[in-house]
Amino acid sequence: MDEAQLVMDTALLAGQILLANGSEIARVEDTMQRIADNAGYRYANIFVLLTGITMSLPDGESTQVRPIHSRTIDLEKVAQVNTLSRQFASDEIDLPTFYQQLRQIEVAVPTFPFWLQELAAIVVSMTLMVAFTGIDAPVKLLFAMLAGGGGYAVFYYVNHELRVRFLSEFLASLVIGFVAYVGIRWLGFTHAAGDAVIIGALMPLVPGVPIMNAFRDTMSGNYLSGPARAVEAVLSVCAIGLGIAIMVSLW
Fold first, then answer.
1. Which DSSP category does 204 fall into?
2. How far apart are CA 68 and CA 172, in angstroms?
3. CA distance linking residue 251 with residue 242, whole number of Å
4. How far does CA 177 lie from the centroid of its chain?
5. With contact defined as beta carbons under 8 Å apart, do 198 and 244 qualify?
6. What is the pTM of this model?
7. Would you state the torsion angle of the CA atoms of residues 79, 80, 85, 86, taken in this order, to the nearest 10 degrees?
């Protein structure tokens, strides 16, 4: 592999990891440009969209496109790529080492195990219900934990087994709404208490990072990727809202 091809492969792989794991477009472009600059190719042409990356080098003979078929949120991988980019800029690692470590990050950096994600969803549901509504009765806290944990479990397994976009949010919100319905129907919760359970349990499902990235991309001038991210986030919110609306209509 010649040097120009290695530079292109390294920059494209770094951009792919960043874009597929929740980084905003401006960060992807900046990181790829810095990699090319530090490798001696100061006038690289880089064009990043939400679904793909295009790159060519001024002295190269080809242009490469790297499609992005799926995206998730894994900020650990984003941080790993940023760290390697800084090490390459300061000559702590050479280009072949940089590329090999990127390949390891792509396949070997673990995500948090399901049980830890489930525990985090339970804690977030309970604490944010108290923070947003002020309701802290033990039985209502228990229902917030059940709703948040059950909803997130459905969200996780539908995403990993079926891989149908927005279906996971819809089914998870149905579970959350059903738990609140049980509390109102059979345990005498007020509608305000049921709303509080729903509010807390929905927080782990809210697409906060995509919404923020949509705003940052739009403000930085990426008028294709920014609105595309916004539409994606809005569809997620609509799926959540539809599931809750169906269950609330039964109250």
1. G
2. 26
3. 15
4. 24
5. yes
6. 0.77
7. 70
- Six token digits for residue 124: 């977030």
Q: Residue holding tokens 């609105």? A: 227
Nearest to 123 by CA among 194, 196, 203: 203
pLDDT in tens, 64-100: 888 888 777 888 888 899 999 999 989 898 888 999 9
96-147 pLDDT per residue, tens: 899 999 998 888 756 678 888 889 999 999 898 888 888 878 888 888 899 9
Residue 121: closest CA among 208, 204, 207, 236? 204
DSSP string, 40-74: T-TT-EEEEETTEEEEE-TT-S-EEEEE-------
**If you compute the radius of gyration of the chain from its CA atoms, what whole number of angstroms results?**
22
In the chain, where does DSSP find H-type helix? 3-20, 25-38, 75-89, 95-108, 114-133, 138-161, 167-187, 191-202, 208-219, 225-248
- DSSP helix/strand/coil, 110: coil
